[in-house]
Amino acid sequence: MIDTYAGLDDAEIAVAAARAGAEVVRAGYGRRHAPIEKGAGDFATDVDVAAEEAILGVIRAARPEDAVHGEEGGQRGAADAELRWLVDPLCGTLNYAVGSMLVAVNVALTDGPVAVADPFSGEVFFTREGTAWVRGEGGQGGDTPLAPTAATRLVDVNLDPPFPGAPAFRAVDLLAHPRFVEGFRPRVADGNGLAGSVHFAAGIALCRAAGCVVTGVDGAPAGESGRGLVAAADAETHGALLSMIRRRG
Question: Which residues bind Mg(2+) 2 (predicted)?
């Protein structure tokens, strides 16, 4: 396995690791999975664990000196390692467990490239030197640059607790805002966490590299101690959403 990844740069390692996890997720789809309880209503499955091990195998083969923080396995490797990877092997476990394909595999090198794989389309979204790209299954069609667009007016609203912005702001309140109803179309999402989190680190980096505007719900830079997250295709949309949030706060 070591020879397989010899000479790959960090971006290609992130892509390879995300693909390895995605293969496990795709292979396990459609089966019944006994939950591994984590408390507070959260759970994992055997596929979460197996996908994380597959991702870890790639990283260990390519960068044995790096540390890895996985959602299921926690911290592995030296605490003072120069480089650290954040791994969410199955983002959307609840969806997956009930047969929904709305899931992703997230791999992020802290302050480096990230990769987000769709197990079912075979696409991998990744960053390289501050730019964002999508690669088709098996590399077909080459790499296509990503750019945001506000044309769809589609907004992802996270209704999965805990709610870091509460009580000042709750995402459900935004759905009832007259300007939101007039100008946008909601899409309910799950998951939570911010920069430095295995859940959102890759997504935040990918959005920013593509040219999106990403802040906390208060307009401040998104961080580990933030109160929520707003990611928009453009500054105008971002400003409109923040204006609605502040009026509801």
Answer: 90
